[in-house]
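Encode chain A's predicted structure.
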Amino acid sequence: MKRNFHISKLINSLPEQAGVYQFFDKEGNIIYIGKAKNLKKRVSSYFFNSKYDSYKVKVLVERIEDLKTIVVDSESDALLLENNLIKKHQPRYNILLKDDKTFPWICIKNEPFPRVFATRTIINDGSKYYGPFTSAYTVKVLLNLIRQLYQLRTCKLKLVDEAIEKGKFKVCLEYHIGNCRGPCIGLQSRKEYDKNIQQIRDIIKGNLSNVISYLKREMEHRSAKFLFEEANQFKEKIKILSRYQSKSTIVNSSINDVEVYSIVSDEKEAFVNFLKVVNGAIIQAHTMEIKKKLDEEDLDLLAFAIADMRSRIESQAREIIVPMKLNNYFPDIKMTVPFRGDKKKLLDLSFRNSKSAKMEKMKRNTSRKAGGSTERILKTVQEDFRLRSLPLHIECFDNSNMQGSEAVAACVVFKNGKPAKREYRHYNISEVKGIDDFASMKEVVFRRYRRLLDEKQSLPQLIIVDGGKGQLSSAIQSLDQLGLRGKISIIGIAKRLEEIYFPGDSVPLYLDKNSESLKLVQNLRNEAHRFGITFHRLKRSASMTSSFMDEIPGIGPVSIGKLFVRFKSVDAIRKASLEDLSKEVGLSRARILQAYIQDTER
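Encoded structure for chain A:
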C-alpha cells in the first residue's frame, strides 16, 4: 500500500477515539468518508493492513493526498455524522444510496391552516414529509381516507390572521360542496384545524387507536349533551377508520411501534428492506438499493441504511428487528435478532421483500438486454407465485355494487398475457342480499367454474381475486365445492398496499412496484374493475330508464341488458335499425321491439 511522509505524520497524530475520517485527493476533493470506533487504528489499516488489499481499496489509497478527522462521543454519533456527510458530499468511493426523489411522500405544509398533499419533491421549508411510500396507490388511499374524515383547504392562500380579520378572502367552490369549512373567512378556528392536523399525523404514522379513542370521547360527549346529529358524525368517522384499520396487514397486536430491517447483497449492490409496524399492522414498506464502491460488509451497510431511514422518517421507535447485532451503533434502541415467533415471521417477510427487489432488478436487467417477451413475463409470474405450470390462461374476478343495489360481478380472461375480450363475462348477483363481497365472490366463482366444468371447457392455470384474505377464502370455498382445490392456483390482491395473498398464508407478499408480475396482476385487476363498473352503470341506467321496455311481450331482462350494453341508452335503442337490433336479440325480438317503439311514437 502507498505510504507518504505527510500521511504517516497525520496517522501518528490521530486520536484513539470514535469519529469520522475524510480522505482527499490532490485537487482537494473528498473521495471517501468513513466512521471508526478508534480513528487511529481504522485509518492506519488502509495503509498498513493486508485486510484492505483488494484492488478497489488500492486504487482509493493511491489517490489519497490528505485526510481530516472529526472526533465524536460514540460509535452511534459517528454513524449519524458519516451518514449526513456522505449525503452532503457524495464522495466517489462511498456507497451510493439510490435517490428516493422519485418516490411519493405525504406533505403537511408549514403554513397557517396547513394543506395536506402528495409530492415527489422535498423542500426544506419546515414542512413535515412522511414516507417515502413505494406505492403511489398507498398515498392515494391515505389521502382519500383523510379527506373522508376532515374538510381541509386545498387553496394556496396565505391565511394569516390579519388578512382573515380584514375579510380579504371569499369562499370558493370547495366550501360550497362541503369539502372545506371556510377558514379563509373565519368559519373554522386555527385551534380546531390544528387539532385535525394532529390527528392526521397520527393516521399517517399508523397510530389509529389514538385517533379512534379521541373520536369516541367526542361522540360520547356529544351524546351526553343530546347532540345526536354531531355524535353521529363522529360515529361515521370511527367506522371509516375502523374499516381502514381492518384492511392493514395484522401480524400481532402486541407488537407496537417496531421497525424491521433486512439485507440481501452481492459483490455489486445490496437491498435493504424496511417495514414499519404499529399496533400489529404493517403501515409502511420500503426497499432501499445501495450501490457498493469498496468491499463494504453487510453489517456496515445495514447500519448505514437504518440511520438514513430513521432520520428521513424522524423515527421514534425504540425497538428494531434485525438479522444481526449491530455493535454499538444504536445504544439507546432495543435491537432484536429473533429466532422464532411473530417477530421472526416479520423478519422473514422483510427478507422476502429484499430478495424480491434483488430478483426484480436482475429480471429488469435481463429484460433490457433480451427485450420484452410474453413467455418471459409469464415465467416470471410462475416463479413469483410458485405456480406448477406456465399461466397461459388467467382469469380475474371483481365485485361491484352501489349501496347494496344492482350487485354485479365481472370476470376477465387473459390468454398468453393478453386480454381475450370475447371471453369476458358479466354476472348479476342473484343469491346474495345486500352488501356482502365475500358471499358475492363465492357465488360468482362457483357459477363460473361449474359452467366451465359442465361444458367441458378448459380451466385457467391461475385465478386472481380482487380483494384480501376474506375474498380469497370465499373463492376457495367454491373451488372446494367443485373439487378444484389444488387443481387451479389462486391468489388475492388487496388494493390498499397491493399485497398478494396465497391460500393458507396469512402473511402477504409485497412485490416491487416495478415487478412485471405485479404489473400483469394489476392490469388484470384494473380491467376486471373497469369491465364490472361499466356493466354496473349500464345496469343501473337500464333499471331507471327502461320501464317502457318491461311492458313489451317477448322482451325479457336478458334481452334488455344486451341492448343497453350495446346501445347505452333508451334513445339510442329507439333510433337503432332493425339490423342492429337483431344482432343483439335476434330478428323476431327486434321486429317486436321496433313495432312497439313505432306504436308509442304515434
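The mean pLDDT is 81.
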